[in-house]
């Protein structure tokens, strides 16, 4: 592992100074000493090491009332980089990011429709090799690889325990990538990664207790509790997709009836629209699918709504209402300061959110519960991959 040169970050004072520079930079040595209450010589020595490690750079001169102007220190954001991977149902996205969370380069590979363990591992390796080639960055400057993966993930050991979409178990993601690239590798569930991405670079802002909800092929939640992701006893905390919303609802993949995701996830939106169209509802969708109702998708319903189709607008609003029932249950369980919705269905924005907010406002127990803000993910489709980047970033820095 290429961790030797980063060993210096382990010291408490170094870590405090490094994080202060990230939070307040550009900042002078004198100001660091003042804020940290460390002696100027101590600050000066640690800064010297940080400059040598190239985590920190000296930037333009600061302002001073008379006398010599102090040189300011800032994070050397572009010297090191991090690789983030988002393993979706159809595509795997690979990005390089600098330390400020800017995406530098991106690669997307398509998965086989029924990947096995080995083909899955091969795609991960191939994508990272391709990304490194394409970005022309030297692997020595890579701090590590973060992976966001759907399903149940053992984040401590970096193992994908179960992926419902591919029915694969126990993929040793971290150890395979560590062996191939000699880098630190961290793996997390995709929705928790999305929540982490929003916490650092999106709509999580300074919130310590909030929930990220992914609404795509399935529905899941990432719970941020006191600034940390909450995993539960066996990594299944936040699996809200299978909470029962309607006992008489449609059958879910899990075998039960009326689960939240059987009603409000992407495929369910299309199914509900098709069912009503078959009963003779009139909609732009009939033309858009060329008369073949099997071709109707959730995103097609959104496109029709954007074009002013009343039927599709109502379908999305109803979807929001069902989602709102699930989210009200979540509000009453963990009482977050806000809820951030990401994933494919979240692209429908206001069409969905209006229904969500309507339901929360009508069912919330207290005025505060009724007014729980619901926002779309600011990083949109990059939330998960940026959260994967944060898995590595947080080994060196603390959240601002
Ligand atoms: Zn279910």
UniProtKB/TrEMBL annotation:
Keywords: Carbohydrate metabolism, DNA-binding, Xylose metabolism. Belongs to the ROK (NagC/XylR) family. One of its GO terms (molecular function) is DNA binding. SUPFAM superfamilies: Actin-like ATPase domain (SSF53067), Winged helix' DNA-binding domain (SSF46785). Transcriptional repressor of xylose-utilizing enzymes. The keyword DNA-binding applies. The lineage of its organism: Bacteria, Bacillati, Bacillota, Bacilli, Bacillales. One of its GO terms (biological process) is D-xylose metabolic process. PANTHER family: BIFUNCTIONAL UDP-N-ACETYLGLUCOSAMINE 2-EPIMERASE_N-ACETYLMANNOSAMINE KINASE, ROK (REPRESSOR, ORF, KINASE) FAMILY. It comes from the Bacteria. This is ROK family transcriptional regulator. The keyword DNA-binding applies. Transmembrane segments: none annotated.
């Amino acid at each position: 592992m290429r961790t030797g040169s980063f060993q210096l970050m382990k010291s408490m004072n170094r870590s405090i100074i490094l994080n202060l520079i990230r939070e307040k930079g550009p900042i002078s040595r004198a100001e660091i000493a003042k804020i940290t209450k460390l002696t100027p010589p101590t600050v000066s020595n640690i800064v010297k090491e940080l400059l040598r490690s190239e985590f920190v750079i000296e930037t333009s001169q600061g302002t001073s009332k008379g006398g010599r102007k102090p040189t300011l220190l800032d994070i050397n954001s572009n010297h090191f980089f991090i690789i983030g991977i988002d393993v979706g149902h159809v595509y795997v996205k690979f990005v390089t990011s600098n330390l400020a969370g800017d995406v530098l380069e991106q690669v997307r590979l398509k998965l086989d429709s029924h990947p096995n363990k080995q083909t899955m591992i091969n795609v991960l390796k191939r994508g990272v090799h391709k990304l490194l080639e394409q970005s022309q960055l030297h692997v020595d400057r890579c701090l590590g690889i973060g992976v966001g993966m759907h399903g149940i993930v053992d984040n401590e050991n970096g193992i994908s325990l179960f992926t419902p979409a591919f029915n694969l178990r126990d993929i040793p993601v971290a150890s395979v990538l560590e062996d191939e690239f000699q880098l630190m590798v961290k793996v997390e569930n995709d929705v928790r990664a999305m929540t982490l991405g929003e916490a650092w670079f999106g709509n999580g802002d300074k919130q310590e207790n909030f929930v990220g909800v992914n609404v795509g092929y399935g529905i899941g939640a990432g719970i941020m509790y006191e600034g940390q992701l909450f995993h539960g006893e066996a990594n299944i905390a936040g699996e809200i997709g299978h909470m029962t919303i309607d006992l008489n609802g449609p059958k879910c993949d899990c075998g039960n009836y009326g689960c939240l995701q059987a009603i409000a996830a992407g495929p369910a939106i299309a199914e509900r629209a098709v069912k009503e169209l078959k009963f003779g509802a009139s909609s732009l969708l009939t033309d858009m699918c060329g008369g073949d109702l099997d071709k109707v998708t959730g995103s097609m319903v959104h496109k029709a709504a954007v074009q002013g189709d009343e039927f599709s607008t109502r379908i999305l609003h109803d979807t929001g209402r069902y989602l709102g029932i699930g989210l009200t249950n979540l509000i009453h369980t963990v009482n977050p300061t806000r809820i951030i919705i990401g994933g494919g269905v979240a692209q429908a924005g206001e069409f969905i959110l209006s229904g969500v907010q309507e339901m929360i406002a009508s069912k919330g127990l207290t005025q505060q519960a009724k007014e729980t803000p619901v926002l779309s993910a600011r990083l949109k489709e990059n939330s998960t991959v940026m959260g994967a980047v944060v898995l590595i970033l947080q080994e060196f820095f603390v959240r601002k």
